[in-house]
Amino acid sequence: MTRRSFAARPGDPDTWIKAADDPHGRRADAIAYTARLTIDVTPDLRGRIKVTAFQRGQTVADMLRELLAGAFPAEGDAP
Question: Does some domain include residue 14?
């Protein structure tokens, strides 16, 4: 019996990063525009993030997307 690993390493990281995953059978158009990112933060930081988002009238997801887009602009975007 051969042992299979949980996840195989990609042969080409660039292709792997850009590839859309569909683990739950979601619609193709939803996959084309979103990707899930998970990070670990302290409970204190999580609380501060949630309070700040609430004070700004935003969701945490929208606030963090905006923050990340500013920190990592696409090619051709102004820094």
Answer: no
**What is the extent of the structural domain holding 44?**
38-74
**For residue 61, how far is the Cα from the chain centroid?**
10
Using CA atoms, how far residue 9 sits from 6, 13, 14, 18, 29, in Å, is: 10, 9, 12, 15, 26
Report if residue 56 sits inside a domain.
yes
What's the pLDDT tens digit per position in 24-78?
Answer: 555 555 546 678 899 999 999 999 999 999 999 999 999 999 999 999 988 877 6
C-alpha to C-alpha distance for 39 and 48, rounded to whole angstroms? 15
